[in-house]
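Target chain:
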Amino acid sequence: MISPRRALGLCGLGTALSLAVAILAAGIPPGPTASAVSVSHFVAVHRTGFAVAAYAGMLTLALGIPYVVGLNRLLRPADEALAVIAMLGGLATFAVASVSSSVQGAIAFRAAALHDIAVNTLAWDITSTLGILVYLPAAVMIGAASLTDVFPRPLRWYGAVTAGLGVVGALAGVIPSPVLTLPAGAALFLLLVWIVLTSLLMLLWREDESA
């Protein structure tokens, strides 16, 4: 019979997969300096992609919550305070992501059909800003977890780099610059890999190792 921790690890793998689908479904987004006309056209053309992203985003929330609980269980024996901080950061991450998915759903089922430049641009600006703000609580989750001695040293360093890039990437929300696009994209990719790696540790970890 599968243990609770391994079940939560499977939720983590599902979280990474559904989050990747949500990210990729809408296609390559317009740049931070794109015109309102270009943004509106992008929204109208990728309406189906936004619908897929919205559903995948809600699945990410459903799987992400038990994953974060599993992460807390894994970290708690080493440092209870950092475990709580990591859990709160994770819950905030998936909460913000779910709001972004809700806006994507609104785009797919209503905004894109209006063919209104102002409405489409506003909807896109909201969901893209929320997507960028995800980096901050994600950095808290990864940073707190990486400060414990639960994970192997290479994974802790990996987490520190990912958290740092996440903070830099979040600046793209207040400083729309192509220079910040690269660290933001890198942080997102590294976050997905981090979730996969920590989920695999949950699957492989024996219950008595952290008792």
Q: What stands out?
A: Residues 80-114 form the longest helix (35 residues). Helices lie at 4-25, 36-45, 47-75, 80-114, 117-133, 135-146, 153-170, 181-204. The CA atoms of residues 76 and 83 lie 5 Å apart.
